[in-house]
Amino acid sequence: MHRLAMEQRLVTWIEAAADWAAGNGVPLVFGEGWIGYTPLHGTFEEGPVGAAFCRRAVEESARVGAWGAVVCSNAAPQHPMWQDIALQRECNAVLRG
User: Fold this and answer.
1) 56, burial (CB in 10 Å: exposed 0-12, middle 13-18, buried 19+)
2) Reduced to 3 states, what is the DSSP secondary structure of residue 69?
3) Long-range contacts of 20-28 (CB under 8 A, 24+ apart)
């Protein structure tokens, strides 16, 4: 149930951001934080549910025409998820079309 609610909210927020960007004539680019700031060794975002959420966020971002997005909240050098190079490449490929 929480997964569905998170996904629905994600789509709503991305669509709202796209509408705002279009209305203000600015490029749409998403920074980090699909999940929010998770603890350094929390492992949620690094796990299958969190990674799937990142993929969904990037797919939605591409669908609404975003110019770019950070793949996930924890893809930074100090976080374990930084080592998930395959996920980062996969999501970047989606954004590049």
Assistant:
1) middle
2) strand
3) 27/67, 28/61, 28/64, 28/65, 28/66, 28/67
pTM of the model: 0.87
Residues forming beta bridges with residue 68, ordered by sequence position: 29
Q: How many CB atoms lie within 10 A of CB 64?
A: 16
Select from 79, 18, 17, 38 the least CA-distant residue to 87.
79
The residue with tokens 């490029």 is 27
d(CA 93, CA 87): 10
Sign of CA dihedral 32, 80, 62, 64: negative
Q: Which residues of the chain have pLDDT under 50?
A: none
